[in-house]
Amino acid sequence: MASSRDRQRKLARAKLDRQMARRAARVRRRRQIQAGVGAALILALIVVGSAWALGAFDSEPKENTAAEEVCLWTPQDGTANTNLKDVGTPETTGLPTDGTRAMTVTTNQGAPITAELDLATAPCAAASIAHLASRSFYDNTKCHEITAEGALRCGDPSGTGLGGPTYSFYNENVPDAPAPSPSASPTGKRQPAYPKGTVAMISSPPGANGSQFLLFFKDYDPDEPTYPIIGKVTGGLDVLEKIGKLPTVDNGAGAKVKPQTDVVLQSLTVGEPTTGAPAASPSGAATPPPSPNAG
């Protein structure tokens, strides 16, 4: 009997040893797995931290797929001002902002007057005039004033100074009052704000530009310029100067500015944008100086 009990104890002891060995093996595997997971987690944290430091998780700038608006056209009430004419509005996007556009003004007073519209400093004025020209807005209208400032005023089909399209736009390139420049001439005379040959917008009230523009046939140098410069005459300055010498009569409002002989704007056309070198100014047509207020 003793021998049988001893054998049972040995078997039980051997079984316990095997259980303990398996348990120890499981503990070692668990620790190995935990150590591996910990090491992997630490490595992952290092990688993520490095990527974050290098900006890998910075949000990518979204591409602006919407076309950038170049000009804003403010609606005007054609029922409140019956001198306004609705011909739609120009585009607000995709407008050229570099180079020039050729403008040709044909009147009943001689050869056409040509000009360059500056797209860099007055893109909205150029876009507006081009739009209106494409709608024959200017055709067979009268240039209703020869102004005291020395400019021919055109672009109002009503001839009242209050006409235009049913939209307006802001000033773009009003020059600063020029400062005296001793190097400009031996007498130190400053360059005028509006040299002869300047093309500028005019509106009533100022800053609500529409269709009306000025063609200067002589220098004009006010203390506080108000007309935005949009371009310069490149041809036909002699015709413009001849028009400037026409006699004027009362315009019905007490101002002697209406040409005694009608100056009919038979047609106005605007060419496609060009980015080449600007055409040379005609003799006597000074290039308008750049303005820090451009645009």
UniProtKB/TrEMBL annotation:
The keyword Isomerase applies. Residues 79-99, 174-194, 266-295 are annotated as: Disordered. PPIases accelerate the folding of proteins. It catalyzes the cis-trans isomerization of proline imidic peptide bonds in oligopeptides. Residues 100-270 form the PPIase cyclophilin-type domain. The lineage of its organism: Bacteria, Bacillati, Actinomycetota, Actinomycetes, Micromonosporales. PANTHER family: PEPTIDYL-PROLYL CIS-TRANS ISOMERASE B-RELATED, PEPTIDYL-PROLYL CIS-TRANS ISOMERASE-RELATED. PROSITE patterns: CSA_PPIASE_2. The keyword Repeat does not apply. Pfam families: Pro_isomerase. It comes from Micromonospora avicenniae. Keywords: Isomerase. Residues 273-286 have a biased composition (Low complexity). This is Peptidyl-prolyl cis-trans isomerase B (Cyclophilin B). One of its GO terms (molecular function) is peptidyl-prolyl cis-trans isomerase activity. Residues 79-95 have a biased composition (Polar residues). Gene3D superfamilies: Cyclophilin-like.
